[in-house]
Amino acid sequence: xxxxxCAILLSIAFLQSSSAEYExxxxxxNKEFSSKIIGGQEAEPNQFPWVVAILMSSIFGSGRCTGxxxxxxxxxxxxxxxxxxxxxxxSAGTHDYSKDEPHQQIMLATESIPHPNFTNNxxxxxxxxxxxxxxxxxxxxxxxxxxxxxxxxxxxxxxC
Length: 160
What we know:
Elements: H1 2-26, E1 51-58, E2 61-71, E3 74-77, H2 79-82, E4 87-92, E5 105-114, E6 119-120, E7 125-126, E8 130-134
Antiparallel strand pairs: 1-2, 1-4, 2-3, 3-8, 4-5, 5-8, 6-7
């Protein structure tokens, strides 16, 4: 019985030293995963007029993401935001999507288009980009603009 106890104790000591050695060699930090922004600042109203709130839902649950207005009918977001959901409500032109605001535009999406090569490996995403098509066009005003906005129409062949 004593031999078995010693073998188990040595195995545990070996496994602990192996994992510590792995962390030192690879430089992997043990950080706690969080789905929230930590240490961020609240944006000023209308500071980012191309950002929208995306409220997602399915029979399995719900979630929230953000997106950027590409044009009057498409939102750019991450594939992991659309991969497991089938209903999307977009809140545009607001500072706080949970409150009714005068310039708020709320609409449903008719389609989500994840990148065809998107892979979701729990904590590692590849080709994590998607488009959401809106049921109708957004109305642009001072509270709502394109992500790539120019007062000058001459943006051909130039980087935005």
